[in-house]
Amino acid sequence: MHRFLISLTAAFAAALLAPTAGHTAAPNIVLIVADDLGWNDVGYHGGRVRTPRIDQLAFEGVELDRFYVCPVCSPTRSGLMTGRYPNRFGLHNDVIPPWRDFGLATDEQCLPQLLAAAGYDRRACIGKWHLGHSRRSYHPLSRGFTDFYGHLNGAIDYFTHLREGELDWHRGFDACRDEGYSTTLLADEAVRFIEASSSEKPYFVYLPFNAPHSPLQAEEDQLARFGFDPGKPRFGRNNNREGFGEQGRGNTKRQTYRAMVAALDESIGRVLDAVEATGDADNTLVWFLSDNGGTPQHGGNNKPLRGAKGSVWEGGVRVPSVIRWPAAIEGGRQFESLAAYVDVLPTLLAATGGGPTPKNEIDGANLLPMLADQAPAGQRSLYLGRRAVVTREWKLKGDELFHVSVDPNETADVAADHPEVVKELREDLARYEALTSDMQNLPYGAGHEGFVAPKNWNIERE
């Protein structure tokens, strides 16, 4: 079986950074990332959570039905920025916790650096970074962004913006004391950035929301929409192990989560409205995705897919994703071929009209020829980490094999029936895992004991 592996085939290599036929002007780019949004937590998947603005994006754009990410967020975010599998730089297995002196390797070339060379003068990171906070060399402003507003760590308090007892909310390198609900503040900033952008040159907005990741906190008006009764107890009031206060908790976790997703959806709608108001929505490429699957113990829902965040079952790594670019891609369709987080960088560079050639080998593919029906999707495999690899038909997870094209919920291990497929996928897996770096992020809890967060999460080291 011929398969897309580490090196691109000649056809893919020729198309990797090729512009889409019939389109010349580089688009504005808005890359929106939700945090821990489950497969069944968008309306267009039939979920009980209503997401009208995300649904609108799906109806107007192309739904990427087989879009894969990593099981947890820092690895996915690093792949978005580099187009490369994060085991190449030691980031595939875990996130970067507050007490860790580690970040995305500084010799990795990031998407905004490449877009700068393609003529994008304004490049904003607005939201959750989570790719290194201990050194200035890891900071978004050191990785090609011209603007940064948001937080460096994950799992901040939505209202106080604290992590480990210190303020983690920044404008540029400086602490920022803006008050408000973080989802709303991030949308406010994105709208301002879009409204201030010139029509003469394209802009890039990377908008990684921290919603609906825990801690579960929502504003009172959103909670009220989902039946919140202030006369009844709030969930977890006697079990505050996460160290966050009661502000924003509803009566149940699921109620609070649904309110958080509703706020996220409305914020995304405001950003889409700002794009529309510029008059250049047709030539604005909007890409929406979740960084990993949902967490049921924190309200997320991945049904009918098996598994959740932290696993390489489909529910942990197959996520909602939509791309909309009216000037170049016909919308209102579903793309059923494999796509992944590592495809974002080469696809966006191709959209610029060719873009600069990355200095490092890219693991992702330019999806534009396939999305524009100018090229067949071809065969490929994707590395999911944790001894797992997936193709359009099959998924190898450890020693188990699933025929995911006909059994997407992974109900039956068919390894014994298809030894030749197991053999081929093991060979693929071995090639991917041979890319692993000697430098590795440590397990999450390592180094936590005795850690004291720096004041306002100020970065002193270069």
Describe the structure.
This protein is an alpha/beta fold and 462 residues long. The chain has a single domain, classed as Alkaline Phosphatase, subunit A, CATH 3.40.720.10. The protein contains eleven helices and 16 strands. The chain has a ten-stranded mixed β-sheet, with helices on both faces. Strands 13-14-15-16 form a four-stranded antiparallel β-sheet, with helices on one face. Strands 5-6 form a two-stranded antiparallel ribbon. Strand 13 and strand 14 form a beta hairpin.
Mean pLDDT: 92
Helix segment tally: 11
Strand order of the largest sheet: 8-7-4-3-9-1-10-11-2-12
What's the total number of strands? 16
The N- and C-terminal alpha carbons lie at a distance of: 48 Å
pLDDT under 50 segments (min length 5)?
1-22, 238-242
% residues in beta strands: 15-25%
Family: Belongs to the sulfatase family.
EC number: 3.1.6.1
Domain Sulfatase N-terminal: 27-353
Pfam family, one: Sulfatase
Summarize the structure.
By secondary structure, this protein is α/β, with parallel strands linked by helices. The chain has one domain: Alkaline Phosphatase, subunit A, CATH 3.40.720. The chain has 11 helices and 16 strands.
